[in-house]
Design brief:
Structural class: alpha/beta
Number of strands: 4
Strand order of the largest sheet: 2-1-3-4
Shape: flat
Length: 331
Amino acid sequence: MKRLTEYLNSKFIEAANTLRPKKAAQRIIAYVESYDDISFWRSVFNEYESENVHFEIMLPARTKLTKGKKQAMMNLLGKAYGRNMIACVDSDYDYLLQGATSTSRQMLGNRYILHTYAYSIENYRCYSDSLKQVCVLCTQNDSNVIDFKEFFKLYSRICYPLFVWNILLYRKQDTHTMSILDFCEIVRITSFTVGNPAHSLQQLSNRVDHKITLLEKEFPQLQHEYDELNKELATLGIQPDETYFYIQGHHIMNSVVMRVLQPVCKHLRSKREEEIERYAYHRQQYNNELASYRHTQCDVAMMLSKNTDYKTAPPYLRLKADIEELLETIK
């Protein structure tokens, strides 16, 4: 009996040891900007972990609450980081500014700083190809109400000319003529109805056209630079159909995508409840089925904030290419 107990204890310890975190040959510490970024970058690096490489994701400082992009990048400046320490940050406008500011130069000039290409992780969560699935998860209704991919393609095309103006002004360090907040205010979705989604796009187009007219009158001398920047953005992978990836992330999530998702999900829930009422044999069955259905529903904002179905998005593919190149250099 004693030998059997020792044997079982040995097997238990052996099994328990397999549950410990990987002790990879190489540990790479990845500094990120905030709490929300930890889960995003964990999902990114999961694909690249192996017996040889393990990523440990952490905030910029262990002993204080300081967070943010500059703090994450600061850990890399002036230190021999590389093989074992990297920074992972939102691109914001720094990728598009292409060295016009010190932060942009630092981010683009250090191969051990990975950036999202999209403005932020929120833009990924708003990937148009994934939005129907978000609605299905929230409503348990798979009906086609709106073509999200086409809607955000049109939204992006409308915003793109003004977006180019915004980048041009920021490259000139002119943040007063049209700040990011000013730009976001213009390209918000003010109203959206399921029956007439084109109306919200027409309102958007009117605001954008008005602002572009004012800018062209105020800065006629910048037309050539505008045209050149338009060409350059194409070489950076920025397509007019995908502008929403590069607009401030919280704005895209809260003032654009949520303005569309909320009424769509409300419509889908209403249709499902009408269906339950129509097919119920009696009131008790209706009440039971309705309670069961409502129990399956999820909050739209919460589900969107946890969306991970963005791994075919064009900016994400560029991020993956950077990670693969980095791993090749640190083998």
